[in-house]
Amino acid sequence: MDTLVSYTGPEHTEDGSARLTLDSPHNRNALSSRLVAQLHAGLRDAAADPNVRVIVLGHTGNTFCAGADLSEASGGDPGDLAADRARELATLLRAIVECPRPVIAAVDGHVRAGGMGLVGACDIAVAGPASTFALTEARIGVAPSIISLTLLPKLSPRAAARYYLTGEKFGAAEAADIGLITLAVEDIGAAVADLVADLRLGSPQGLAASKALTTAAVLAGFDRDAERLSLASARMFVSDEAREGMLAFLQKRPPSWAG
């Protein structure tokens, strides 16, 4: 099986962190079933290693993550497939939130759709000058349903309304201002190294318990809303408007509702 997420344990990193690297640049690190499974495995391996105090989630290529792998959306009932993929994403985001180790997102590329949810799920997020962010779902007839579980607890309400509705692109400085990321930096490596050094001063028990305090409300949101949002997302995904929106995107033309 191709390695789409590389795992580097603390014995092989200079700072003693565990490194999970999204490594599928040919499709912009899209969340294929295989990539998601490998990311789950990496999170489990890191959590089971007593020498791991912190996990760094990075990427290869100029895109951190572009969201779902639409090439997998074929075969079987479209509504059932869409619901299954939504649940798969919800489960992945929850795994990051529930992981007993702090997770740092190290981003220096484009972030879209499910990638935004990954950033929101991480405890700390650092973005470099090549980073761009956008929530363009409304432009193709859907909504950022599942990723709202990790984004809305982080974003200011005014910023969420603006970027959910306009779909406009913004950079790292704005992402820091609205709460999506922790730090906008010029040197990703140096910033992550400083954070890892600080986190490694914490005890495993202290870090896990402290993280649990910050994630309790987010997990309550998953318990309350994940299944409802998965079904709502699936209904939108197979709607006439979504089909028109995705086709227009692929054909590089305005969708019907844009005149």
TrEMBL record:
Molecular functions per Gene Ontology: catalytic activity
Family: Belongs to the enoyl-CoA hydratase/isomerase family.
SUPFAM superfamilies listed in its UniProt record: ClpP/crotonase
Highest taxon of source: Bacteria
Pfam short name (any one): ECH_1
Protein name: Enoyl-CoA hydratase
